[in-house]
């Protein structure tokens, strides 16, 4: 196996594949990156127990300037290989692998030799037996992921809650995540209706890595779903993720259908006020912020009290306040995550009772995107 390639372009491909490789891999072979050189291009593969990423550097890619002298395959230790490639002195690098899977990496005056592994021992990528393909613009898919993944649980005590629930029926996609303290739900109309109904749970960690890979990509991403795998195709890159087994809780019943108090605010302004209040709340044992709403006097006040440090009180600016007077306490970190997901928009907060979950929705497109937060009981 022998080839040369433009190093900067190669690093971009390498970084994508590296996302799937764990430093604590159960199998030694999975701590490596697989290189498969054919006459048409170079395929890079990385995998762990949850995700697998495969990307192809085509000989037609002018930026990569891939020059193939001899085809072949090898698995190289990902951590060393990645660091070596990034620190090579010249723009062009070459790799030559002998029959004992030793790889010689050259660039300018630098030369490294590292021991590789037999590619025949590398696990095969999952086979997706999908009945149909779905497509979504990359920027829309990234937005859906970022708006929902924040509410997924990080605790393995209930593994099903560490995923994002995707339900696809007809021309609508529903994405939901909850850790039982908060919930995020996004509805999306698909350009073309799906002939098959899907009800799947994708690990939130996988979706997080996918969102990072998408970057600013607005091109359509192809999605294929099988019984226990989902595949996202981004140009020359294929992103596989396992699916979580089990039934996701019925979250629709958690969302209140009516409210007794409603507050409309500017999301960035309210976020900054919450950030100020949480400066002190983080020093307390409970990390709680209280919101007092007085519709009669058209007043909204934010409180935070930490006996160890002090307290803060701030009169809020808002667009509209309607309904009953209310005092409610909540975790400010949940509120900050929720508000960030709305960007620069105006947000409506709907409340029912002091100890009942409340919702946040964008004022212009209510129903498409909902954040729900469970209040904190205070003495």
From TrEMBL:
Main location: cytoplasm
Pfam families assigned: DNA_pol3_beta (PF00712), DNA_pol3_beta_2 (PF02767), DNA_pol3_beta_3 (PF02768)
Annotated SMART domains: POL3Bc
Keyword vocabulary terms for this entry: Cytoplasm, DNA replication, DNA-binding, DNA-directed DNA polymerase, Nucleotidyltransferase, Transferase
Compartments where found: Cytoplasm
Molecular function per GO: 3'-5' exonuclease activity; DNA binding; DNA-directed DNA polymerase activity
Source organism, top-level taxon: Bacteria
GO biological process, one term: DNA strand elongation involved in DNA replication
Residue ranges occupied by any DNA polymerase III beta sliding clamp N-terminal domain in the UniProt entry: 1-126
Residue ranges occupied by any DNA polymerase III beta sliding clamp central domain in the UniProt entry: 136-250
Domain annotation DNA polymerase III beta sliding clamp C-terminal: ranges: 253-376
One GO cellular component term: cytoplasm
Family according to the record: Belongs to the beta sliding clamp family.
Subunit comment: Forms a ring-shaped head-to-tail homodimer around DNA.
NCBIfam families: dnan
Role this protein plays: Confers DNA tethering and processivity to DNA polymerases and other proteins. Acts as a clamp, forming a ring around DNA (a reaction catalyzed by the clamp-loading complex) which diffuses in an ATP-independent manner freely and bidirectionally along dsDNA. Initially characterized for its ability to contact the catalytic subunit of DNA polymerase III (Pol III), a complex, multichain enzyme responsible for most of the replicative synthesis in bacteria; Pol III exhibits 3'-5' exonuclease proofreading activity.
PANTHER family reported in the protein's UniProt record: BETA SLIDING CLAMP (PTHR30478:SF0), DNA POLYMERASE III SUBUNIT BETA (PTHR30478)
This protein's name: Beta sliding clamp
Source organism (scientific name): Ligilactobacillus apodemi DSM 16634 = JCM 16172
């Amino acid at each position: 196996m022998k080839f040369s390639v433009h190093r900067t372009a190669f690093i971009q491909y390498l970084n994508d594949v590296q996302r799937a490789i764990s430093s604590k891999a159960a199998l030694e072979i999975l701590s490596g990156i697989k290189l498969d050189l054919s006459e048409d291009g170079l395929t890079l593969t990385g995998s762990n127990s949850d995700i697998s990423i495969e990307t192809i550097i085509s000989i037609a890619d002018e930026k990569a300037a891939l020059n193939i002298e001899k085809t072949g395959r090898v698995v190289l230790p990902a951590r060393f290989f990645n660091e070596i490639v990034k620190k090579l002195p010249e723009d062009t690098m070459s790799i030559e692998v002998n029959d004992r899977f030793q790889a010689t990496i050259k660039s300018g005056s630098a030369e490294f030799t590292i021991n590789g592994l037999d590619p025949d021992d590398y696990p095969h990528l999952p086979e997706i037996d999908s009945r149909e393909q779905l497509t979504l613009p990359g920027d829309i898919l990234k937005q859906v992921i970022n708006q929902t993944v924040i509410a997924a649980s990080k605790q393995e005590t209930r593994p099903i809650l560490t995923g994002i629930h995707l339900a696809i029926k007809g021309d609508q996609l529903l994405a939901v995540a909850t850790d039982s303290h908060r919930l995020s739900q996004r509805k999306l109309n698909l350009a073309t209706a799906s002939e098959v109904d899907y009800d799947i749970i994708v690990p939130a960690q996988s979706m997080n890595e996918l969102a990072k890979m998408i970057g600013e990509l607005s091109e359509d991403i192809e999605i294929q779903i099988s019984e226990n795998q989902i595949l996202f195709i981004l140009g020359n890159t294929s992103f596989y993720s396992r699916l979580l087994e089990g039934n996701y809780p019925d979250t629709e019943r958690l969302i209140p259908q009516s409210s007794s108090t409603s507050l409309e605010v500017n999301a960035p302004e309210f976020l900054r006020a919450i950030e100020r209040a949480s400066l002190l709340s983080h020093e307390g044992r409970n990390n709680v912020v209280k919101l007092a709403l007085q519709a009669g006097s058209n007043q909204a006040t934010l409180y935070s009290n930490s006996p160890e440090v002090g307290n803060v009180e701030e009169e809020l600016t808002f667009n509209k306040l309607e309904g009953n007077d209310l005092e409610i306490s909540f975790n400010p970190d949940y509120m900050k995550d929720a508000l960030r997901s709305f960007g620069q928009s105006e947000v409506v907060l709907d409340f029912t009772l002091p100890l009942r979950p409340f919702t946040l929705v964008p004022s212009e497109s209510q129903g498409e995107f909902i954040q729900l937060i469970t209040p904190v009981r205070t003495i």
